[in-house]
């Protein structure tokens, strides 16, 4: 009880030898890189196929971005970028680097995500010639990331940190320790933060992993203990947050973005306290469907002229009906 939502993510970036970095690539060179990587992936029999961003419309690209599948670097390089996404594995071509291997695991499973990513990387290393320097390690578009090309991340719901008003102090201390901390989709109202760590050639992969695991474990336990303390001392406040949020998603008709993000945060908080009117996965599913471009797509399907705030309420109720019918 009181365990916060957490998602573990590992990224490994690689560049191919004999090619310029992404920021200097010509289109034909980028296509050549894509063909080599796609051929290697096909031989590995990875499920799924690559989607070229150049074949997507602008709204579709934004939809994928809201789902967290493509990032800002890929959107910037949309003419030469492509992506394969399949159940916890994402392969990105010509985003920040020629290749980014990204794995996701639910819960505090950073080591499992790490092992999964390196299993893919090891297979690809036998099929592709990655740019490597004996002194600086794997070469990256951003020189400061040269070395392991490894980025470790966890998405943590830090609601109690905000309730206890220690979030700013915590963010400052993380920055001083060399960690990056950013709110999911740039919005603090969800209280979900990506905490990431990358040291390049200054540490080995195992050193980075052990340090990151220990740090995230402490943060997780601190958040859990703060939740227990808050619920023990102020149970009615905790219940009020949850049930007000539940009322908004069940009965709200005009809902702005800030209001729904705050509600989702309170629902996740309540779920951790034992209020299970909705499953955690059902609450998390509200995040992308309530955002701008998902609602614009929904609006176009309905041929509706209603404002986004009205459609957000409609879309949430449709989602809840789908959940109930599924049961």
Q: How are the SSEs placed, and which strands pair?
A:
Layout: E1 6-14, H1 27-43, E2 51-52, H2 58-66, H3 72-76, E3 82-86, E4 89-93, E5 99-106, H4 110-125, E6 132-133, E7 137-138, E8 150-157, H5 159-163, H6 167-176, E9 180-183, E10 192-197, H7 205-233, H8 235-251, H9 257-273, H10 280-284, H11 286-289, H12 292-302, H13 308-326
Antiparallel strand pairs: 1-5, 1-8, 2-3, 3-4, 4-5, 6-7, 8-10, 9-10
Helix pairs in contact: 7-8, 8-9, 12-13
Molecular structure report:
The chain has about 325 residues and is α+β, with helices and mostly antiparallel strands. Helices cover about 50% and strands about 15% of the residues. The chain has helices at about 25-45, 60-65, 70-75, 110-125, 160-165, 165-175, 205-235, 235-250, 255-275, 280-285, 285-290, 290-300, 310-325, and strands at about 5-15, 50, 80-85, 90-95, 100-105, 130-135, 135-140, 150-155, 180-185, 190-195. Strand 4 and strand 5 (about 100-105) form a beta hairpin. The longest helix has 29 residues, at about 205-235. The chain is globular, with a radius of gyration of 21 Å. The model has no long low-confidence stretch (mean pLDDT about 90).
What attributes does this structure have?
globular; 13 helices; alpha+beta; 10 strands; eight-stranded antiparallel β-sheet; 327 residues; single chain
């Amino acid at each position: 009880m009181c365990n916060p939502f957490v998602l573990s993510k590992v990224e490994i970036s690689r560049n191919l030898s004999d090619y310029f970095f992404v920021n200097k690539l010509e289109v034909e060179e980028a296509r050549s890189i894509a063909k080599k990587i796609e051929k290697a992936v096909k031989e590995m029999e990875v499920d799924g196929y690559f989607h070229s961003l150049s074949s997507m419309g602008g709204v579709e690209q934004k939809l994928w971005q809201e789902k967290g599948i493509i990032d800002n670097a890929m959107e910037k390089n949309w003419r030469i970028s492509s992506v394969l996404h399949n159940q916890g594995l994402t392969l990105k071509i010509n985003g920040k680097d020629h290749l980014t291997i990204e794995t996701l695991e639910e819960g505090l499973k950073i080591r499992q995500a790490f092992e999964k990513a390196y299993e893919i990387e090891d297979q690809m290393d036998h099929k592709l010639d990655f740019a490597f320097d004996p002194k600086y390690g794997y070469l990256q578009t951003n020189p400061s990331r040269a070395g392991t090309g490894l980025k470790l991340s966890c998405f943590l719901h830090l609601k109690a940190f905000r309730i206890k008003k220690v979030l700013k102090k915590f963010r400052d201390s993380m920055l001083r320790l060399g960690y990056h901390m950013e709110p999911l989709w740039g919005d603090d109202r969800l209280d979900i933060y990506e905490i990431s760590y990358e040291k390049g050639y200054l540490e080995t992969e195992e050193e980075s992993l052990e340090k990151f695991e220990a740090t995230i474990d402490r943060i997780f336990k601190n958040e859990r203990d703060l939740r227990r303390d808050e619920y023990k001392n102020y149970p009615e406040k905790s219940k009020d947050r949850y049930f007000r949020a539940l009322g908004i998603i069940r009965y709200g008709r005009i809902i702005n973005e800030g209001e729904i993000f705050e509600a989702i945060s309170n629902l996740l908080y309540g779920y951790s306290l034992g209020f299970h009117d909705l499953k955690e996965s059902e609450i998390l599913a509200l995040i992308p469907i309530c955002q701008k471009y998902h609602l614009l797509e929904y609006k176009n399907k309905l041929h509706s002229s209603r404002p986004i705030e009205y459609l957000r309420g409609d879309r949430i109720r449709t989602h809840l009906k789908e959940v109930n019918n599924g049961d």
